[in-house]
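Input:
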Amino acid sequence: MVHALDEIRRVLVTDGILVDLRPVGNQWRVEVFCARETRQTGTLTDLPTGLEDDKAANHAMAEGERTGWFLREKEGLFPIYYIWDSASEMEEWIAAEWEGYVGLGEEVRRATRSAWALGDADSRVRVEVQVLITRWKKL
Amino acid sequence: MSFQKDPQQNETKHLHQLANFSDRRILEIGCGEGRLTWRYATKPAMTIAIDPDQDAVRVATIERPSDLEDRVHFSNAIAERLPFPKETFDIALLSWSF
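Output:
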């Protein structure tokens, strides 16, 4: 990753901008929601692969700052929602797309299925994913 | 299966708050099928979006709107070896790739 940063620096103009946009593991919230209410049913579990990726990315960016390649100008964390029509669709997605990164514990799975099954007809399921955005200036 | 990702477009809002893409030369790294590319691609003078996944690059190219053909280009490449001369871009965007 540090080598990639060096390459990015090479192709950027002086004072060029690097925007780093990525999800960060942070016990993402699982909710069942409808027009009338929102119920949190638990959080996803951060798994080793995801945590290691976060750590490696943070290390690479810190290294880029330490070596004087880039200056961190702005940073923020914001949520985005992944939304499914049912609890089982969410489970399928997590197993297929997020395997190794985040996990759905049995207690949360049961609570989400139950809340969705007993909820209003317009109930859906969502996960709030935390996204980190950072603006770096090439030095 | 009905699925939505970021229907409130928070990602787009924050991206445009952090960088001005108008008339700039953009390098997007990790573009995949172009999901994020289409959220800013009408503004830059030129966008080159790369991804190591050849199939994803193919999909992105097929889905590229005809009015962006001259300004948005997709390429199969990796960040560790960028096939561009030095100082080619004003903005580099790491798109969920680190």
